Amino acid sequence: MMLKIENLHAQIGDNEILRGVNLEVAAGEVHAIMGPNGSGKSTLANVLAGHEAYGITGTVRFEDEDLLALSPEDRAAAGLFLAFQHPVEIPGVGNLYFLRMAFNSVRRRRGLEELDVMGFLALAQERMKLVEMDRSFMSRSVNEGFSGGEKKRNEILQMTILEPKLAILDETDSGLDIDALRIVAGGVNALRRPDRAMIVITHHQRLLDYIVPDRVHVMAGGRIVRSGDKDLALELEEHGYADLGLEVASDRSASVGATP
Amino acid sequence: MTTVTSTARTSATAAPTVAELLSRLGFRPSGPSPAWLTQARHASLGWATARGFPTLKDEDWKYTRLGPLLDVPFERAGDGDGAGRRVSPAMIDALTIDAASTRLVFVNGLFAAELSLLTDLPEGVTVTNLASVLAEGGAGLEPFFSRPFGEYDHAFTAINTVLAEDGAFIQVAADALITAPIELVFLSDAHGPPVMANPRSLILAGPRSRVAVVETYAGTSGGVTCTNAVTQVVLDEGARVEHYKIQDEPDAAFHLALLDVRQGPGSRFSSGSVALGSKIARNEVRVRLEGEGAEAGIDGLYLPRGDQHHDNPILIEHAAPRCTSRQLYKGIVDERGHGVFNGRIIVWPDAPGTDASQTNKNLLLSDHAEVDTRPRLEILTDDVKCAHGAAVGALDEEALFYLRSRGVPYEAARALLTYAFARELLDLIESESLRTHVETLVAGRLSTDSDGTGAHSGD
Amino acid sequence: MTDVSNDVREFASQEYQYGFSTDLDTDAVPKGLSEDVIRLISAKKHEPDWLLEWRLRAYRHWITLEEPHWQNVHYGPIDYQDIIYYAAPKPKPQLASLDEVDPELRTMFDKLGISLAEQERLSGVAVDAIVDSVSVATTFKRKLADVGVIFCSFSEAVQNHPELVRPYLGSVVPYRDNYFATLNSAVFTDGSFCFIPKGVHCPMELSTYFRINAADTGQFERTLIVAEEGAEVSYLEGCTAPMRDKNQLHAAVVELVALEGARIKYSTVQNWYPGDADGRGGIYNFVTKRGKCAGANSKISWTQVETGSAITWKYPGVILQGDNSVGEFYSVALTANHQQADTGTKMIHIGKNTHSTIVSKAISAGHGQNTYRGLVKTLRSAEGARNHTRCDSLLLGSDSGAHTFPYIEVKHPSAQVEHEASTSKISEDQLFYCRQRGISEEDAVSMIVNGFCREVFKELPMEFAVEAQRLLSVSLEGSVG
User: Fold this and answer.
1) CA-CA distance, B350 to B348, in Å (whole number)?
2) What does the pLDDT read at residue C71?
């Protein structure tokens, strides 16, 4: 099993957001996590990536290693990638420079040879085609002044360059028009491989038309309350969360409050 | 080795010393007051005498020349309702916002009971004059008069402590809510020699209480007066105080005021001021955020013209975690007017999570108008979000042209755009009757030199 | 929670790399200051009488002054009688070519990364090097002379071009200007002089390296740059000093004069010894720098990267006298450990349609205290004046401090002055984003800090930009721009 989450709890202050998440993801699989606002989806993604704002209990094993013991950068080097819901802007830091620094940092930790500027540029240009980005974008500052769609494409570009083992996409589809969605999904699908797993967090079934999941989970109130195959997503689309007997869980999530 | 010695600074002005001014004003430290008060007055006298008057070399007084004020041979204001008083009930009516509101009127710093209106107030709410509280011993008031002098204090606040006899006293018990604003009217009235008044007011808001207070400063024309006012506000946990101030003293008047605010946890304080009058006005505000999560919003509009000088020294101290402060000050400066904004935010080391902002915008309407602005940030910890901005400029020529091309005469277009500049601040006034009152004052000021068609109040 | 401060501390407390001292044979006058010492300095430099008189006038004024203490920095008393006011490496260089430079000195410059020969051969930058206040070598003199540019030590200029020095000396920073400028006027020992005649665009960047080497010396150099009508020049200044436990005073004066249509760009990378981690030693960098846009359509631009010195106190300013003249100030100031900086600019708008731009980036780490102090003043004559100021502060560590004190004084209604400033700590979100991509926290901090300063770095000439970035401990490598 690539990722094994057992009884994971996370809280900020007195506010418990994750209340015992259990999840297993095997190599080659794509899992979708759906659920109403405030159910804990983004918190789960942040906790897996090592965000330090949370108090955490439970266990998470990633390729049989204790993931929770690693720093965020070590998790990245181990092959975990998070496509952020709201990618942050870093003024004054060139995109190309940032990407190469990330790429070489990860390579260094993995004991691989670093790429020089020319070598990296060639790689980046090849990957940029996947997400249909033009060259000018490399000289801009990281995410600064990017449109919502450009930011999301930049996340996918970073993913194609860093080639993670486990990619977590946090609402990568939110705010995208149909063309941008197609481009983003194309980039993601190009990365699907038997030795790579993905967790796709989404609010809408729409994305799952492009990225077809092996498993679908529903989160509510800080737990996974239901799991199934891709038909579960369609069922949700048709009937909403209410018809799934989740009223109680939804109520509880409301009392827990929104995740950051 | 010898070190280089230097020559002493020359001091060759005819201005009086603090001791000279106080003796002229008839300091009577042995008067009928509680022993602690006499002691506090002595301490203040000693401090002010040693400290002397501020000069242009003091950073907080850099742009305000005190010469014209110190040159005036002020005397102590007459006792209350003395003969020849020119303040009439009609004048009070014109100044009050709501004739039915609770109001306290002071003439030359002394309570005028017959002009005041005390309405029924909820239980636990006291609205009276300070002298009557002091006459009964002033239990619990000592700390307000005996605060240690700090870096920011100056001779005028100390002089107020030495001489203050009266002012407003408002105390709101826990959980009490006062919905209608309490009006405090301070009138200066001199028809003989120049007089100086030293009103002192206290506003004490208990836990979770809510109260709104409007201070109005005005006066009769003809004589020369100086108002040296101190208002102290203390907000207990969760209290909410709205404070407004309208300064519309006669053009020959001097106005020095300090609003000192201390805020407990989770309290919210807002202050909105409009400065229209006086020859030299200095409207100082100090807010100390002492309890976690307190919020303060300090706004002001100043409109000096003629030879008026309006100085706005604002000090916000963040002394507790996660407090928020906002300042928005706007100046509209015409003729030979001089506007000064001197905002200062200090974030102390024990105030993580501070969020503070400060904005000052100025409009210069004449070739001889002058603005000096100093938005200052002093930050002594790292977990902060602070921003400030200042701008000085003229009316937007394009907007002016646009209006004129639509047939609006030049003067009217100018007044319209000027009023629009002030509008942002007027919209912050919560009470509708007060907002209308202030809008009328501001619009009246801005339309004086036009044909009167340009400015209008509200929509 | 991470301990950001660990990395930050490490980043901020990088060891000073220029702390060696070179064993040069030094010719110095005795400690202390008096009219006799000034006469001795002037005599050693074979100065004309008018200059000695000027020095003495400054000295007589100085002894009537009090040392100023309004600035937001704190330091113990300076004993002005415990300073050596003249120290020159011996033998006093009378150099025909670089080959004659003291080999020890050459080695020192090599350590500094400014091999004079290299500079001359490769980069085409003309270098004047000042060690302990005396100019030791000026490269490229010939090539510059061909186009009429004079670039030499101040002492040489006094000997060879008194008619150019005399009218401009003290014309921007009068000897009565302020305590330290007055002291400098009395005791300055050398500096650079540069004159670009009418219509000439200086064919290469001019550069001066300053180094304080001898112990107990003060450095009081004086730089004067005059650009005649339509002339252009870019001037670079770099500074280092050895590690010494005692504080050393550096009180320089820089005067720039731009006549009609002239352009002067003055860049500084100041890396004087900042003192050790506990705040012992380091340079007191109390400098007066001012330019005058004397003619219409002239432009003066200051760019500074201040990473060194125990205390930095300077406000490179521009007097915008000519109509349509332009003044610029771009600054990065980093204070770490116990460093203090009180720096900013003065833009004095006098002429019509004069424009000024101020961009200040301050970084405070450790116990560092950083103050921006700036004056924008538009006089009544300055119709159509414009200023835009942007001041940002970044705080790294809860013991650091950032202070912003702008002074804006406006006397013309058509003037438009805008000031914006922000202060915040380094963003946790940015750090997490970088770390999620595999970048170590330390690298992420460096990267974000450099990004924060980029707006200023891009104003620097290329070699200096690289030096500046390195000084902020980041190799941005090939990705800039």
Assistant:
1) 6
2) 76
Examine residue B298 and state whether it is found in any structural domain, yes or no: no
**Sequence-ordered alpha helix ranges (H) in B304-360:** none
Give B125-155 pLDDT, tens digit per residue: 999 999 999 988 888 999 999 888 888 899 9
Structure confidence at residue C50 as a pLDDT band (50, 70, 90)? very high
CB B69 within 8 A of CB B55: no
In a domain, B337, yes or no: no
The conformation of residue C120, written as its DSSP 8-state character, comes to: I
CB contact under 8 Å between C398 and B383, yes or no, is: yes
A94 touches chain C (CB under 8 A): yes
Nearest CA in chain C to B57: C70
* Residue A176 three-state SS: coil
Contact (CB<8Å) C406/B389: no
Nearest CA-CA distance, residue C255 and chain B, Å? 27
Does residue C410 sit at the B interface (CB-CB below 8 Å)? yes
Predicted confidence (pLDDT) at residue C231 exceeds the cutoff of 50: yes
Q: Got the DSSP string for A35-97?
A: --TTSSHHHHHHHHHT-TTSEEEEEEEETTEEGGGS-HHHHHHHTEEEE-SSPPPEEEEEHHH
Is B224 inside any structural domain?
yes
Among B residues 199-228, those touching chain C with beta carbons less than 8 Å apart:
none
Select the residue of A73, A93, A100 nearest C435 (Cβ to Cβ).
A73
- Predicted complex ipTM exceeds 0.90: no
Cβ distance C80 to B374 less than 8 Å, yes or no, reads: no
CB pair distance less than 8 Å for C79 and B362: no
Q: Is residue B371 part of a domain?
A: no
- Under 8 Å between Cβ of C243 and C281: yes
Measure in Å the smallest separation between the Cα of C447 and chain A Cα atoms. 7
Comparing CA positions, the residue from A58, A90, A87 lying closest to residue A174 is A87
What pLDDT score was predicted for residue B78?
Answer: 65
Domains of chain C, residue spans: 2-476
Give the pLDDT band of residue B305 (cuts 50, 70, 90). very high
CB contact under 8 A, B388 and C400: no
Task: Select, from the ranges A175-189, B243-257, C23-37, C274-288, the one with the highest average predicted confidence (pLDDT).
Answer: B243-257
User: 0.95 cut: is pTM over it?
Assistant: no
C76 touches chain B (CB under 8 A): no
Could you tell me how many helices (H) and strands (E) chain B has, helices first?
Answer: 10, 22
Considering all CA atoms of chain A, what is the largest pairwise distance in Å, rounded to the nearest integer?
A: 57
Domain that holds residue B87: 18-291
CB contact under 8 A, C81 and B381: no
Cis bond before residue C91 (omega within 30° of 0): yes
Range name among B257-261, C179-183, C204-208 with the lowest pLDDT average: C204-208
Asked if B377 is an interface residue toward chain C (Cβ–Cβ < 8 A), one would say yes
Structurally, chain B folds into a number of domains equal to: 1
pLDDT score for C348: 96
Radius of gyration of chain C (CA): 22
Cross-strand bridge partners of residue B128: B169
Which residues of A fall within a CB distance of 8 Å from C443?
Answer: 101, 105
Q: What is the pLDDT of residues B183-197, one digit of tens each?
A: 999 999 887 788 999
Q: How far apart are CA B141 and CA B161, in angstroms?
A: 12
Chain B contact probe: residue of C383, C398, C423 with most B CBs at under 10 A: C423
- Please answer yes or no on whether C415 and B364 come within 8 Å at the CB atom: yes
